[in-house]
Design a protein that fits this description.
By secondary structure, the chain is α/β, with parallel strands linked by helices. It is built from nine helices and five strands.
């Protein structure tokens, strides 16, 4: 199976591809309108040699304002958009939470991090996947729990699409998270019936939790 591409590297690759596509559009529009590279270089206040290099894909890091001025000179407009594209990078607190959980369950489990839910189909990934005795358990970790229903839905869909028998929601044992767990006890108990002590006991023995679990640690 090919290695999963780092999301930041993938984003940079997509931007380079979009810049290359814009450069091809620039050249096609310039030629269609009968303009020379010098014509649009003067309009955009850049050198003709830079225009040539951009059109030949030799400046993958061309500044957006420069590209925008060149495109306007040939009757086009550069549009930059942002939109959801997968999971954010994890901070130290999140990594520390996963580390505490891994230490708490012992060494009976094989452990992988950032495991794709459906490789080659989407960008979703489990924070970790544990395997033991032929059973895989998906792990989702939250340092600060906010939207309980969104988290519950996310874990449920990942579990369904991964066909895992069990999932564990790992929460940092903080005042905020304990308060949210108390406030939404019914929803969380329905989605994650096995509580911290029972889940850790099962996992330390090398067994999957008896049902989906919520672990405060």
């Amino acid at each position: 199976m090919p290695a999963r591409e780092d999301p930041i590297d993938a984003a940079a690759r997509r931007v380079r591809a979009e810049v290359a596509e814009a450069a091809r559009g620039l050249r096609a529009a310039r030629v269609e309108r009968g303009l020379s590279q010098s014509d649009i270089a003067r309009a955009a206040h850049v050198s003709g040699s830079l225009v040539s290099r951009i059109e030949h894909g030799e400046v993958p890091g061309v500044p957006a304002p420069t590209l925008a001025r060149l495109l306007v000179a040939v009757g086009l407009e550069l549009a930059v958009r942002v939109y959801p594209a997968g999971e954010p990078i994890r901070d130290r607190a999140h990594l520390a939470l996963l580390g505490r959980f891994r230490a708490a369950i012992g060494s009976r489990w094989r452990w992988r991090v950032e495991v794709p839910v459906a490789p080659h189909l989407d960008r979703r990934a489990w924070d970790a996947v544990m395997a033991s005795n032929g059973v895989q358990v998906g792990v989702e970790a939250e340092t600060r729990l906010r939207d309980v229903q969104a988290v519950q839905r996310r874990v449920s869909l990942r579990q369904r699409d991964s066909a895992f028998e069990r999932a564990v929601l790992v929460l940092a044992d903080t005042r905020n998270n304990r308060g949210v767990v108390r406030e939404y006890a019914d929803i969380l108990a329905a989605a994650f019936p096995t509580a911290t002590a029972a889940a850790l006991a099962d996992l330390r023995a090398g067994n999957a939790p008896r049902s989906n679990a919520l672990v405060l640690i």
